[in-house]
Amino acid sequence: MSAAPRTIRFTLNGSAVEATFPPHLSLIELLREQFDLFGARESCGQGLCGCCTVLVDGNAVSSCLYLAAFADGAEILTVEHLARDGRLDPVQQAFIEAGAFQCGFCTPGFVLMTKQLLDDHPDPTDDQIGHYLSGNLCRCGTYPEIIAAVLDASHCLTVSL
Amino acid sequence: MSPFALEEPASLAEALALLDPDDPGARAIAGGTALMLMMKSGLYRPQRLVSLRRLGPALTGIHTAADGGIEIGAMVRLADIERSGKVRAAAPVIAETLLTHSNVRVRNVATLGGNLAHADPHMDLPPVLIALGATVRVTGPAGERSIAIEDLVTGYLETVLANNELITAVSIPPQTGRRATYAKVTARTADDWPALGLAVSVHAEDGVVRDARIAIGAATETARRLPQAEAALAGRAVTDTTLREAGRAAAAEAPVVADHHGSVAYKRVLIEVHLQRALRRVLDGAAR
User: Fold this and answer.
1) Quick check: B189 pLDDT over 90?
2) Which residue is closest to B2 within chain A, CA to CA?
3) Phi/psi of residue A11, each to 5°?
């Protein structure tokens, strides 16, 4: 059985791109190996820790459990594209101001899940914050600061609307 | 993961033609969340995967029937089921259950058909769909057939489906007069896999149970109904004694298996206690 290479076209961080790869490649492998995007990290490899979170057509996914071939025609956003014109995204800024990380390994995933949370619920309840972020793990244990950052970002985004 | 070929057919007929009943090396892939785990761990090494994502709108719709029942396409993502007003109107227990299922990212990708075909006994939806009396619509070379969810799974990761049959939709009958709830019981952390998943759907009138459907998963090798517990409730007045008898019947009849989420004795206690609590939740609501 031949596993012929596959060529797909998709939008990556706002730019039209093309990639050719073997069909068994996962999306995170494609992003790291062919596009030098290292913000998403494969940590647990099982969709549990959230370190590999990217947005596919606006939906957060675990890129370690996502076939790269399924990105064909999609719009992919990684943490690298959040800052615009030299300004950090309000969620990123809130994480810095709240000190919502220690080693920073999990931070891109938390930031993107927070984006998804605030897209769906601009003024989230404690339950909604817990629900969206329960699939992300911070082994430094900065959860109180992360929740403070989420609330800061929510405040910042709703006030500036 | 070991290499495989990937087909992306544009129609159901094309997809079926690419699957071979005698070739376990070729399988369908929907969202792929479960299959990716199996491939990454080396549990499954396919030669060829047939993607169902281009099969079109026939498998991605949610339709309400005239009688109040609902049909959900097999390729509908769990997140879309969770947010669907139609599903919430027909059977609110489904959205409530999905909130406990895995995490937001997995539900953004995993599909209903994939979830059922995967046949992992720890999944939350099978006991709920069994309690709701749901069926899967299945298409193969010989045509279409309907299978009750409780008859779909034969063992751990095993179903009655031939390798060239595909689930196309799930049909849920009208739930008129019924109330349902799901209890996900985890033994360690809240986001752990369940030691017990327990669903009940009850029709009660004037303090008397007319009909009860009780289904469990995770504690048993496959999701299944508990007929003796159902019989202990049918036609009986809702009292603590009735509920206790149903709990005891359920704990006694369930073919419980031990795993690292709990021993057989522990899971039997969970069944007895959580069935009574779940019944109380739906019956107190129905009494209003």
Assistant:
1) no
2) A24
3) -100, 120
Do residue B3 and residue A46 have CB atoms under 8 angstroms apart? no
pLDDT, tens only, B41-59 = 999 999 999 999 999 888 9
Complex-level ipTM: 0.95
Say yes or no to pLDDT of B280 above 60: yes
Q: Which CATH architecture has domain A90-160?
A: Orthogonal Bundle (1.10)
The domain in which residue B106 lies consists of: 58-172
Statement to judge: residues B262 and B238 lie in one domain: yes
CA–CA gap between residue B225 and residue B195 (Å, rounded): 17
- Spell out a b/e string for A48-57, using b for 16 or more CB atoms within 10 Å of the CB, else e: bbbbbbbbbe
Q: What is the pTM of this model?
A: 0.95
Question: Residue A2: what pLDDT?
Answer: 58
Give the nearest partner residue to A4 out of B2, B5, B109, using CB atoms: B5
Same domain? For B33 and B73 the reply is no
The Cα of B105 is separated from the nearest Cα of chain A by a number of Å equal to: 4
Q: Is B96 an interface residue toward A (CB < 8 Å)? A: no
Q: Is B18 on the interface with A (CB under 8 A)?
A: no
Confidence of residue B288 (pLDDT cuts 50, 70, 90): very low
- Our measurement of the distance from residue A101's CA atom to the centroid of its chain's CA atoms, rounded to an integer in Å, reads 16
| pLDDT score at A161 | 57
CA angle A73, A79, A83 (to 5 degrees): 110
Q: Which of B149, B172, B195 is the last residue of a domain?
A: B172
* Fold entry, domain A6-81: Ubiquitin-like (UB roll) (3.10.20)
